[in-house]
Specification:
Layout lengths: L5 E3 L6 H6 L18 H7 L6 E4 L6 H8 L3 E5 L3 H12 L7 H8 L8 H6 L6 H16 L3 H14 L4 E2 L2 E2 L2 H4 L1
Parallel strand pairs: 2-3
Antiparallel strand pairs: 1-3, 4-5
The structure holds S-adenosylmethionine.
S-adenosylmethionine binds next to helix 3.
């Protein structure tokens, strides 16, 4: 298998971090193929004497994250960069969080962002102000100094955009107007 982007979690959460993560705060994954609703069943059907779980096609890391919560070491693999960032944020990351000052920094309009999403997706997937916001947010992520914070910010952005996914497909604006 081609492993273009893999992350390895070698240390488990601090107990304090895990206890603060028990309430899901992100919208549920909606794309076809997500195993989020099946994670408990998958875990129950898996051998109990394993120390390491290889999430070969990790996607949103829903499955890997569940195994991590059960104190398994998790190796994640996915050839999409945004899934790599989700795995880095949720699996490899032990205790880095986005603090309040990071959120403020990420949401600031620094006025120097490029216009990739604005030029490509305005009127397609996003209204103009949404596209500008996403371009600004992406640029602000690059200015964060910590790699786990960068991945967390990109993961949050990617999961928040789940709200744009209808019936398993990233929704064209015309479908929701
Ligand atoms: C059905 S999704 C994974 C679902 C995941 N377990 C979840 O619950 O979100 C399949 C994933 O496999 C990845 N994928 C497909 N072919 C791959 C390959 N040859 N190497 C690495 N990743 C691959 C895709 O990018 C996609 O994220």
């Amino acid at each position: 298998m081609k492993c273009q982007a893999s992350t390895i979690q070698d240390i488990l959460f601090d107990a304090e971090v895990w206890s603060s993560l028990k309430t899901p705060r992100l919208p549920q994954t909606q794309y076809l193929g997500s195993k989020e609703r099946l994670v408990e069943w998958i875990y129950e059907k898996s051998p109990k004497d394993i120390a390491t779980f290889f999430d070969a096609f990790s996607g949103t890391s829903a499955v890997g994250f569940y195994f991590k919560s059960r104190n398994k070491k998790v190796i994640s693999n996915d050839f999409l960069k945004f899934n790599y960032h989700i795995a880095k944020a949720l699996i490899e990351n032990k205790n880095t969080k986005l603090e309040e000052e990071d959120i403020i920094f990420l949401l600031e309009n620094k006025g120097a962002a490029d216009s990739l999403i604005e030029d490509t997706f305005t009127g397609v997937f996003f209204e103009h102000d949404q596209a500008r916001f996403l371009d600004q947010f992406r640029m602000n992520v690059e200015l964060l100094e910590n790699d786990h914070k960068k991945s967390l910010a990109l993961a949050v952005m990617s999961r928040a955009l789940t709200r744009k996914v209808l019936l398993g497909h990233f929704a064209h604006l015309s479908a929701i107007r």
